[in-house]
Design a protein that fits this description.
The two termini are about 30 Å apart. The protein has two domains: about 110 residues, Rossmann fold (3-Layer(aba) Sandwich); about 80 residues, no CATH class. It is α/β, with parallel strands linked by helices.
Amino acid sequence: MKTAMPPLVAANALPGNKPLVMVGCGILHKEVDYLIRKNGWNVETQFLDSALHNYLGKLSDQLNAALAADEQAGKEAVVFYGCCHPKIDDIMQNHHTVRTHGQNCIVMLIGYEKFMEELEKGAYFLLEDWALTWEPMITQAFGGNLAVIREIFHSSHKGIIAIRTPCSADFRAAAEAAAAFVDLPLTWMDADLGHLEAVLADAIARKQQLP
C-alpha cells in the first residue's frame, strides 16, 4: 500500500524567515538543490561526502560538527539522511531536529516498494555520484584485492542498477566501468523526483512543527 504524501510546504520554511539549512549526504545534491529551487523553499543546503556511510565514525563526527556550526551561526537545520548510522536518531534528538523519512537515499528516491522489489532480486543500486568515484571509493573501503572485492559483491548482489534522474548527466561510461570492476551485469532505471520531493517537503514540515 502506498503512503499518502504531505502537501508541499510554503516558501518561508520557518517563522520570521529564520535561516533553515538542509544538512546531509551529497549523493543526490543536484536533485535536492533542483527541488528546493523548483518549490521556492527558503532553504540553504550543506552537503557532506557521499561515501561517509562507509565510515560511521567520520559520519557522526562531520554531521555533529555541521549541525553544531549551524546552531552557533543562529541557523536551524533539517537533516537529509536515512538510517545511515546506528545512532542517527540520537544525533537528531541531541540537536533538536528531524531527518528525512526513509531507510536510505534509494528508498527516498524511488520509494520503499520499488526498492524492496529490486533488492529481493539481488540489486545493488548505483547513483551518478558513486559511479564517478567508484574505484577509489570501493578500494578505500574494502582494500585493493580485486578478487576479495568481487567476492563481497557477488555474495549479496546479482546485478547493478544504475539510476538516472532528470538531473543526471550522462554517466554511462562510469556506470559500465563500475559494473565491470565488480564483475556484475548492469541495467538502468529512470526515476522521476516526485517521491524525493514529497520526502523533503515532509521533513521541512516536521521541522516547522517542532516547538
